[in-house]
Amino acid sequence: MAQCTAPIKGHRTASGRANCPACGSSSYRSYGSYSSYSSPYASSTSSPVSRIGGSRSAQTKTKARWSVARSTVLYTPAEIRTLTPVRENVEKCSGAPDLRDVFLCHAWDDRKGAAKELYDSLQSKGVTVWFSEKDVLLGASLLREIDKGLAKSRVGIVLVTPSFLERVKKEGIADKELSALLARDLLVPIVHNTTYEDLREVSPLLGSRSGLSITLDEPMVSIAAKIAELVAL
């Protein structure tokens, strides 16, 4: 009968047990099948996102530095990194008179849909918004009014939709607004019904910036609440 080598060589490893003439038999096969089980320590180090199939909802969320004590708005770490420099600029120009809180850049095709919905959500939270549908009078020069609106706004938000991407490709008004906003570095992209990958194909510079996304987990009203906190002084 084969003798166990554990007293001499030990079985501190699976290979040591496998090479033992006494233990490396059927008893090891059951041990080997067990050894393929993932260690609980390995799973505990994986990110919460990977454990729930990629959902962003499991990420740890916290209040931002600029959140008031009673606020219930929570941000992911990525959102705080994105919005912090914008908030710092808002604070720097806090004493400037007659500034709108937000300049809303959007595609013409979205003016009565997603852009109007975002505008209404922001307005309901007390945010003053430059919105072409409300601020450009009939017969006025659109480009000139856009220039004035940009100059008199603390923050620019870009509503990125499939229609917006098409307008940028054609180098229309949306593209001109975008160029001016990018030059000011006071810009928050808000992606809706498209992806950042699609945005990077059309505008690598804008696509390189992190921003906010309108999703089932983060509906329009939630995004508006974050923008409202961002510009509150």
Describe the structure in your own words.
It is built from 14 helices and five strands. With 233 residues, the protein is α/β, with parallel strands linked by helices. The chain folds into two domains: 6-37, no CATH class; 57-231, Toll/interleukin-1 receptor homology (TIR) domain (Rossmann fold). The protein has a five-stranded parallel beta sheet with strand order 2-1-3-4-5, with helices on both faces. Helix 7 (114-124) links the parallel strand 1 (100-105) and strand 2. It starts with 5 loop residues before the first helix and ends with a helix.
List the helices and strands and how they pair.
Elements: H1 6-9, H2 14-19, H3 26-35, H4 40-45, H5 48-51, H6 77-92, E1 100-105, H7 114-124, E2 129-130, H8 132-135, H9 142-151, E3 153-160, H10 162-169, H11 173-184, E4 187-192, H12 196-202, H13 204-207, E5 212-214, H14 220-231
Parallel strand pairs: 1-2, 1-3, 3-4, 4-5
Helix pairs in contact: 7-14, 9-11
